[in-house]
Amino acid sequence: MAKPIMIQGTMSNAGKSLIAAGLCRVLRQDGYRVAPFKAQNMALNSFITKEGLEMGRAQVVQAEAAGVEPSVLMNPILLKPTSDMGSQVIVNGEVTAQLSARDYFAVKRSLLPAVMQAYNKLSEQYDVIVIEGAGSPAEINLKDADVFVNMGMAKQAKAPVLLVGDIDRGGVFAQLYGTVALLDPDERALVKGVIINKFRGDESILTPGVKQLEQLLGIPVVGVVPYVHLDIDDEDSLSERLGNKAAALVDIAVIRLPRLSNFTDFRALEAIEGVSVRYVESPRTFGSPDLVILPGTKNTMADLLWLRQSGLEGKVLRFADAGGAVFGICGGYQMLGTELSDPHGVEHGGSLRGMGLLPVRTTFTEQKTRTRVRGAFGTLSGTFSALSGLPVEGYEIHMGKTETDAPIVTITDSITGTARTDGCRSANVCGCYVHGVFDTDEVASALVHALAREKGVDPALLGAVSGEAHKQQQYDLLADTIRRHMDMQAIDRIIKEGI
Description:
This protein is an alpha/beta fold and about 500 residues long. Strands 2-9-1-10-11-12 form a six-stranded parallel beta sheet, with helices on both faces. Strands 15-13-16-18-26-25 form a six-stranded mixed beta sheet. Strands 19, 20, 21, 22, 23 and 24 form a six-stranded mixed beta sheet that branches.
């Protein structure tokens, strides 16, 4: 069975996911077979495995860092918020229910066997399991329900814990001390080290506080990790990449929908020097983009109403009417059609007029499509003609069926092995269900070069495209940072000694 180590945080977004990914990379470099695990993840960014099962994106990143195939065993429970009060509950990669927070807490304990079955299967295959917690272990109002998230999972897996505090938000010593103080004695005994994350400046200035914290806690500080800028997929829409950016040589505007999901669809475009991918949430910041993208969303109808009420729908319609290039992915593709119908109340209920830019109608069904696909673009026109014949590889994850007579891709379903068409085109507007449609170097390069040429910019001024090489380089940079700023000898000892 694998040796576990668990990364918990003083709060959400303290940097647990990246610290866990960095440890996965370091341990892999040191010759261990290592895998990530997070019992319960809440995020709108998800991924479809080769078996057609759905899991959280953060554990996919950690698996990539560890050099292993992502498996739903690494994230047995995924909660995808559909409203401010409820979430789609996905267990072992499949949708099981739509529950309010209160109803989920009522059934949460019954999911422990599924969590431990997944963890034990994973543990049989690897040397080390890097477990990630969620939120904070010191949420005393939720402690009774913590059967497999933070300290509950640490007890189940018999995992030593490293506690991460975020100094960038301020009050890191209070964060760490207060969190440990609120733990029960048996929980405090599991915390074998603390990490100060996102530090900026001269570390020597921090040293007196570090020493005093160690004396107060009786727990060593095993790392002071600097604030580093890495191009690695983030877990959810709190990501800094969603902040507003200045336009570059090629300016791409992604509409920042309230329930935006899978914004990792644009990471290949973001990585190209000279290309700006701006996330736009008001008409005021729409600007004069070269391409507008309507991304995926967890609630297409509700977000279409928001688009309409915010005034951004009018901006997009006028942009398209003037010949501007528009691309919709998944929920964004559905919005571009003439009508959306929800007879089963899957999302919003009833029917809703679409934006009318594509001649398609979407009907929401109770069955979720989850599969990986590969294929090629057909013959396209206008800006998107540069994509004609290029390979497509990605995944589909949606609840709707869309009728189309003008598909843009021919793809083969990895689950059924059947070939089919997907998407629609009309003038300079395209859309499809395939997430990751821009991920290949060939597609990303062809698209941004076409946009550059249209506005009279020499494509040679844009940076090179090397998505996979760039990704691996970022994981190595993260590992280098972990090695330089964390006591890996102490962490190796903590892993080997356990609890």
